[in-house]
């Protein structure tokens, strides 16, 4: 992917072809670039789940979110409980 910048503060992301995956990646890249370039840059966080690299913008009032979604948090807690039960047995 190539990144180009015109004079009007617009970010243009384009690839060599019109593949759906390239378009999706371009949209994600643009969103991340906009978040990093705005006043939300300090709130871009990587999800705390192991082997998971989803990034999100923490818009909670106290900026203390660690997981990208409640489902992700539940999955991590269930895995920890399973490991604790297995260790106790």
UniProtKB/TrEMBL annotation:
Organism expressing this protein natively: Nocardioides alpinus
Signal peptide: none
Coiled-coil segments on the chain, per record: none
Zinc finger CGNR domain boundaries: 43-86
Listed SUPFAM superfamilies: Jann2411-like
Annotated protein name in UniProt: CGNR zinc finger domain-containing protein
A Pfam family per the record: zf-CGNR
């Amino acid at each position: 992917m190539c990144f180009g910048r015109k004079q009007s503060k617009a970010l243009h992301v384009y690839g060599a072809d019109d593949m759906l995956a390239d378009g999706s990646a371009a949209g994600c890249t643009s969103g991340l670039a906009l978040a990093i370039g705005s006043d939300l840059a300090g709130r871009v966080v990587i999800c705390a789940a192991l082997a998971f690299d989803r990034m999100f913008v923490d818009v909670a009032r106290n900026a203390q979110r660690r997981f990208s979604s409640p489902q992700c948090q539940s999955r991590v807690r269930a895995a920890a409980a399973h490991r604790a039960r297995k260790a106790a047995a």
